[in-house]
Amino acid sequence: MLANFLFSLNVSLPIFILLLLGVFLRKKNILNDNFIACANTLIFNVCLPAKLFSDTMNTDFTQAIDWRFFLLLIGGTMVFYVLFWIIGAVTLKEPAKVGAFVHGTIRGNFVYIGYPLIQNILGLSALPAEGMLASAFILPLYNVLAVVVLTVTNNPGKKIDFGKILLSIIKNPMILGILAGLPFSFIRVKTGFEFPFAITKSLGYLGNLVTPLALIVIGASTRFTAIRKSIKPIGMSCFFRLVLQPLIIIPLAVAMGLGPVPIVVLFVVYAVPAAANVYIVTQKMGGDADLAAGIVIGTVAASMFTMTLGIFLLKTLAII
């Protein structure tokens, strides 16, 4: 029991230490808004695509991926999306709050927090195939679902331009990194092809920047005052995002006979806090930006406990 607790703590604590470091550095004015903006651009447009390209290239996708994994990944997200929209519409009334609530509750920070968590739990230096496939499918789905709910709740009657959404997904640097790595993955499996050491090492350097820099930036971007303004919807979002989803998905995954790796990926997809761009997208589309910011901050703070407890339970019950 103690060993499982220490494992859980060691897996999750480094992530939150870096988040808290970001909060501290911002409070001491060592980091400012300009640094945060530049760091976000560097991570999103350069470092993260490089990591995803490298991880994709080094992943063997020729092995069949279990359809049950995809059912819980995509089907579960869609079911929760509809459920949270209904709950939001009934309890919050104001359309702008409903949109922010649904967006913040459904969109987890699978990239900046999820990636290192998966690697820590599994003891890997790169994402497993299930993690790469989750990125390729869940990230575009988050974008589509966000645009739909924010358009409907903030601009009633406005037509949703799915062509524009699709184009933005295709142009996303993360998606481009994955797509660019796929041909090299298949070539590598078939022929044993490897890039020269200088290229792989350079990609490794860029990829290694992602986790520490992203976590520090998230911490530095945190504004705790936003929580006070909308306690009820933030509390609801924390419960639905961090507790309800994994409590439903993981027992289903176990009952369906999935193995430890897909279960870890599903746990992370459904248990990580809301993504930082929940606030950015909600604000740009005219939603309740304060509520979105509060959900991001509230879920990040609460996840320090819920994710550690979740990992502890998975280990104690011998699920992973």
Helical proportion, percent range: over 70%
- Helix-strand pattern, N to C? HHHHHHHHHHHHH
Strand content: under 5%
C-alpha Rg (nearest Å): 19 Å
Distance between the termini: 14 Å
Number of strands: 0
CATH fold-level name = Na+/H+ antiporter like fold
Low-confidence stretches: none
Topology readout:
Blueprint: H1 2-27, H2 33-57, H3 67-92, H4 95-106, H5 110-122, H6 129-154, H7 162-170, H8 173-191, H9 197-221, H10 231-255, H11 260-271, H12 277-284, H13 289-316
Helix pairs in contact: 1-5, 1-9, 1-13, 2-8, 2-9, 3-4, 3-6, 3-10, 4-6, 4-10, 4-13, 5-9, 5-11, 6-7, 10-11, 10-13, 12-13
How would you explain this protein's 3D organization?
This protein has 320 residues and is mainly alpha-helical. The chain has a single domain (2-316), classed as Na+/H+ antiporter like fold (Up-down Bundle), CATH 1.20.1530.20. The chain is built from 13 helices and no strands. The chain has helices at 2-27, 33-57, 67-92, 95-106, 110-122, 129-154, 162-170, 173-191, 197-221, 231-255, 260-271, 277-284, 289-316. The two termini are 14 Å apart.
Short summary:
This protein is mainly alpha-helical and about 325 residues long. The chain has helices at about 1-25, 35-55, 65-90, 95-105, 110-120, 130-155, 160-170, 175-190, 195-220, 230-255, 260-270, 275-285, 290-315.
